Amino acid sequence: MTRPIVLVSADVRPGDGHEWHAAAATYLEAVITGSDAVPLVLPSLGAAIDLDAVLTRVDGVMLTGARSNVHPSLYGGVASAENGPYDPQRDATTLPLARRALELGIPLLAICRGMQELNVALGGTLATEIQSLPGRRDHRAAQSDVQDERYGLAHEIEVEAGSCLAAVLGTAPDGGVTRVNSLHRQAVDMLAPDLLADARAEDGTIEAAHPQAAKGWALATQWHPEYWVASDETSKKIFAAFGKAMRARMRRAE
Ligand SMILES: N[C@@H](CCC(=O)NCCCC(=O)O)C(=O)O
Fold it and tell me: Coiled-coil stretches, from where to where (predicted)?
């Protein structure tokens, strides 16, 4: 069997007078080393992409994190300069991509902004600047130029017993606790009707979720398992489970 191919979402960014559609290398490398799969970056060209033409040729989809926020108009919110930056081309690509991947039963791993996209794509809403909400901790990255510090494990999460994440991690019957990094200022507010919360931070922030009706394996994390996939057991297990789900689906299609 050949290695699974993972479609990876792209941010749209200016550079050298051009517009680039790019994904950070940490996500691409984690697909290779953690899932034993081949990453393929999908440009954020919205309706210009025939999603089925691509999705019938790949084995998994990964929605990456990004500093930009999902545009509030997509979940009934109000856009503002403070809430930005936005990436409307990415939104126009990733929201339909997530919905279609789930319809086709293609394994989906959604990370940070990716989890927020999945929630909005399925009808949920987001809370913004959660660090200023009563009782909530600051989930933003440490102020540092050193990536290992920004992506350092920052707080614990409680894993829901019997959840998709609990199965991936093989946690204790009561769900268990693990430590995660944290680089976000938005979070799930109203969880989409089809999503189930798999883990929460101590302040109630939903840290992982999965779609109940998904035909295939799907998991969303508000943290970044890609960054420590070489050394952190929780991160390793998530990428390994993603790879296993893709290979199982490939075998079924043989
Ligand atoms: N913008 C959203 C999404 C958070 C997210 O995906 N963060 C990744 C940051 C990557 C980096 O800064 O290195 C939010 O803030 O909630």
Answer: none
Shortest-distance Cα residue to atom 14 of ligand 1: 184
Query: Whole domain around residue 219: which residue ranges?
Result: 5-253
Q: In what helix (H) or strand (E) does residue 51 lie, and over which residues does it extend?
A: helix 51-55
Nearest to 204 by CA among 168, 151, 157: 157
Region 211-228 average pLDDT? 96
Of all atoms in ligand 1, which is nearest to the CA of residue 128?
16
Name the 3-class secondary structure at 38: strand
Whether 226 is a known active-site residue: answer: yes
Residue 21 known to be catalytic: no
Half-sphere exposure for 40 (CA within 13 Å, toward CB): 14
Our answer on whether the CB atom of 113 is closer than 6 Å to any ligand 1 atom is: yes
In the reported structure, the alpha carbon of residue 173 is separated from the centroid of ligand 1 by a whole-number distance in angstroms of: 32
Confidence band, pLDDT 50/70/90 cuts, at residue 42: very high
Residue from 116, 183, 205, 206 to probe ligand 1 pocket by mutation (most atoms less than 8 Å from CB): 183
Ligand 1 center to residue 114 CA distance, Å?
A: 9
Catalytic site includes residue 112: yes
Task: Name the residue among 48, 60, 84, 47 with its Cα closest to residue 9.
Answer: 60
ipTM of this complex = 0.98
- Give the model's pLDDT for residue 174: 77
Q: How far apart are CA 200 and CA 209, in angstroms?
A: 9
Q: What is the CATH number of the domain that holds 88?
A: 3.40.50.880
Cβ pair 118, 195 in contact under 8 A: yes
The total of structural domains in the chain comes to 1
**Whole-number Å distance between alpha carbons of 74 and 164:** 27
